[in-house]
Amino acid sequence: MIVADTSTWINFYQGRKMREVEILGEALQAKILFMSPPVLCELLASKTLSKEDKQNLIQLPRLEILNEYWERVGFLRNTLLEKGLKARTMDCLIAQTCLDHKAKLISNDDDFRHFSSVGLKLA
Q1: Backbone dihedral angles phi then psi of residue 4, each to the nearest 5 degrees
Q2: Which of 78-82, 99-103, 108-112 bottoms out in mean pLDDT, i.e. has the lowest?
Q3: pTM of the model
């Protein structure tokens, strides 16, 4: 099970040649790519994606928000902030959905490396 962050999806749709985009394409073909609800929210708000692209994103299998998710997100953010690490709320939402489902995250955003200290696996 693998998830792509918002910036990886944007790079994918812009046709950028990057390792993360390649991994996303491979995961799509292998049907092991899942959508994180916070990422979907950000992508649906994008002005650069077409209506058709947004419809395709909606059709992807989605990670469920599990019970007590919001509490875990809050504690996750607190844990990282107490360590002096950058922990934006949206990143915490994305990371927690991956952690809850033991999914790997495709990202070129260096801020996600902070989440490896709490078990997030990066692709």
Answers
A1: -110, 140
A2: 108-112
A3: 0.93
